[in-house]
């Protein structure tokens, strides 16, 4: 797999562009192995439901619109945009390196 880089309009895509051509959205975009989770699928992660981050409560719903070199098999990466956000979320969600329940196209994400 070869990496491709391009300059994107920062007004349209302030956090960058996913592999499907949609904007990367912190705490909504996930990168997946598209042979395991089809791109465009909603992804519900119960561990994130109710997580409070910067005054907002997460609903546990994400969208699979990106791929990544480390996303092989049953591994997903949640786009967070900033290291500070990652550190806070990791502390509160307690999911790093652990098996967590992931539900594809859950009714909770409609």
Descriptors for this entry?
10% helix, single chain, 7 strands, 5-stranded mixed beta sheet, 1 helix, 110 residues, alpha+beta
Strand order of the largest sheet: 6-1-5-2-7
Quaternary state, please? single chain
What's the β-strand tally?
7
- Tell me the Rg in angstroms: 14 Å
Average predicted local confidence, pLDDT: 88
Give the proportion of residues in helices: 10-25%
H/E topology pattern? EEEEEEHE
Describe the biggest sheet? Answer: 5 strands, mixed
Distance between the termini: 33 Å
Q: What is the overall number of helices? A: 1
Low-confidence stretches: none
What is the strand content?
Answer: 15-25%
What characteristic shape results from the CA principal axes?
globular
Structural class: alpha+beta
What does this structure look like?
The mean pLDDT is 88. The protein starts with 28 loop residues before the first strand and ends in a 6-residue tail after the last strand. The protein is of the alpha+beta class. The chain is globular and about 35 Å long. Helix content is 10%, strand content 18%.
Please write out the topology:
Blueprint: E1 29-31, E2 42-44, E3 52-53, E4 56-57, E5 61-66, E6 77-78, H1 83-93, E7 103-104
Parallel strand pairs: 1-5
Antiparallel strand pairs: 1-6, 2-5, 2-7, 3-4
